[in-house]
């Protein structure tokens, strides 16, 4: 009886977390360069087995029986598939086709983004909408004339002269952490490495890779599963209450 309550409660908790992730995906469906997240779910029994088999958790008693104990969210997985390339006809908008990230100089150090909606600062340097400088292979990207071109390899051409080249890097997916505003930071092992399999397209932006229809279907399915677990929990609680009343007599 208690097992059933815990199983239903774990399902409710897991699907509530899943709804939060789906909601965030939908909220960023129109955010350039956004990558959708997905909840990684395992059965609670598998979670316990993994804990018991972990050398750091030795000494626990082995599991008895084969009943499921519900579900457990293990974390989130980010889908790094490429979004669509959309024409904006704006010269400061650039998209990356293929692999790679732009390098941005933030107060927290170098961070990375696929959102190429840039602007020209008062100092005539290329910056993000938050005012963070966009880095090139030779430092800040300075554009002194509106007559400029950003080529397919990231070369910045002003008045027919290459003045810099956008710094495009590859990142280890396992070390990437979202830091907001379509920016990523890298923690742990590995680091940025020069990218090779890419093409820069000026006057375009990469859209998010969120499929709105799929996210809505997943949200509805998740809500129905949450409600089913909720009804199960209420039923288990009522049954337990009647059992305790009968025993008390």
The portion of residues assigned to helices is 25-40%
Strand order of the largest sheet: 15-16-6-5-14-17
Overall mean pLDDT score?
85
Please give the domain count.
2
Could you state the order of secondary-structure elements as H and E?
Answer: HEHEEEEEEEEEEEEEEEEEEH
Total helices: the number is 3
- Structural shape: elongated
* Largest sheet data: 6 strands, antiparallel
Radius of gyration, in Å, reads 25 Å
- In whole angstroms, the N-to-C terminal distance is 20 Å
Report the portion of residues in β strands: 25-35%
Kindly state the number of beta strands.
Answer: 19
**Unreliable stretches:** 58-67
Please identify the structural class as seen in this structure. alpha+beta
Task: Write structural notes for this entry.
- With 249 residues, the chain is of the alpha+beta class.
- Helix content is 29%, strand content 31%.
- The two termini are 20 Å apart.
Summarize the structure.
This protein is of the alpha+beta class. 29% of the residues lie in helices and 31% in strands. Helix 1 packs antiparallel against helix 3.
Present the secondary structure layout.
Elements: H1 2-27, E1 37-43, H2 44-53, E2 71-78, E3 85-87, E4 94-98, E5 101-106, E6 109-113, E7 119-120, E8 126-127, E9 135-136, E10 139-140, E11 148-150, E12 155-158, E13 161-165, E14 168-170, E15 176-180, E16 183-186, E17 193-194, E18 198-202, E19 204-206, H3 212-248
Antiparallel strand pairs: 1-2, 3-19, 4-18, 5-6, 5-14, 6-16, 7-8, 9-10, 11-12, 12-13, 14-17, 15-16
Helix pairs in contact: 1-3
């Amino acid at each position: 009886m208690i097992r059933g309550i815990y199983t239903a409660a774990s399902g409710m908790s897991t699907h509530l977390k899943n709804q939060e992730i789906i909601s965030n995906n939908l909220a960023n469906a129109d955010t350039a360069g956004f990558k959708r997240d997905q909840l990684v779910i395992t059965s609670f029994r598998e979670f316990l087995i993994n804990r018991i088999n972990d050398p750091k958790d030795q000494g626990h008693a082995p599991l008895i029986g084969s009943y499921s104990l519900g579900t457990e969210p293990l974390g989130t997985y980010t889908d790094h598939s490429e979004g669509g390339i959309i024409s904006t006809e704006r010269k400061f908008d650039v998209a990356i086709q293929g692999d790679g990230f732009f390098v941005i100089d933030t107060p927290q150090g170098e961070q990375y983004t696929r959102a190429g909606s840039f602007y020209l600062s008062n100092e005539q340097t290329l910056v993000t909408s938050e005012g963070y400088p966009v880095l090139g292979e030779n430092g800040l990207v300075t554009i002194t004339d509106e007559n400029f071109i950003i080529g397919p390899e990231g070369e910045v051409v002003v008045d027919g002269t290459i003045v810099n080249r956008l710094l495009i890097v590859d990142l280890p997916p396992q070390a990437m952490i979202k830091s907001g505003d379509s920016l990523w930071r890298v923690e742990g092992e590995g680091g940025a490495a020069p990218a090779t399999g890419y093409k820069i397209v000026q006057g375009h932006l990469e859209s998010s890779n969120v499929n709105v229809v799929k996210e809505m279907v997943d949200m509805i399915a998740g809500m129905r599963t949450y409600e089913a677990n909720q009804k199960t929990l209420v039923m288990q609680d009522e049954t337990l209450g009647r059992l305790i009343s009968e025993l008390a007599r």
